[in-house]
Specification:
143 residues, alpha+beta, 2 domains, three-stranded antiparallel β-sheet, 5 helices, binds zinc ion
Length: 143
């Protein structure tokens, strides 16, 4: 991404935000002049790939995450699913990895859900981890 001030073609990303219209806004800092500028990139040009437990790869899909969050909050009074999903996505994009694992998604989703509802967090946990031990979730919630 070429610097708009000095034209140098290398910059580092200092902040990424996932926007509602499926684009990513990035704050970049030029590695030569140090000035900061903003770029807007579409998700299509920057696909994030998810690897699951069987090492299968598939493109990251917001709808899939949204469905799992809707399920988790179903029996709670949480109604801002869109906001929760966006927060989780922002965290995932902030990892700045082309390839993330389902574990990464579960970890970030649990962190965010906990801000909203312990119940939703529990439901999500039982759906997405082998819950042969409830110690894990107890440790997580009681941190
Ligand atoms: Zn520059």
């Amino acid at each position: 991404m070429r610097c708009i001030f000095c034209g140098y073609n290398d910059s580092k990303v200092v902040d990424s935000r996932y926007l509602k219209d499926s684009s990513i806004r990035r704050r970049r800092e030029c590695l030569r002049c140090g000035k900061r500028f903003t770029t807007y990139e579409t998700v299509e040009s920057n696909p994030m790939v998810v690897t699951n437990v069987d090492n299968m790869r598939e493109p990251f899909k917001r709808e899939k995450l949204e469905d799992s969050i809707k399920y988790a909050v179903y029996c709670t009074d949480v109604d801002n699913v869109d906001e929760i999903v966006s927060k989780i996505e922002n965290r995932l994009f902030a990892l700045q990895k082309q390839e993330i694992s389902t574990k990464d998604i579960v970890k970030e989703a649990l962190e965010i859900l906990l801000e909203y509802s312990t119940m939703a967090c529990l439901v999500y946990y039982t759906q997405h981890t082998d819950c042969d031990s409830f110690d894990g979730i107890r440790r997580f919630i009681n941190r």
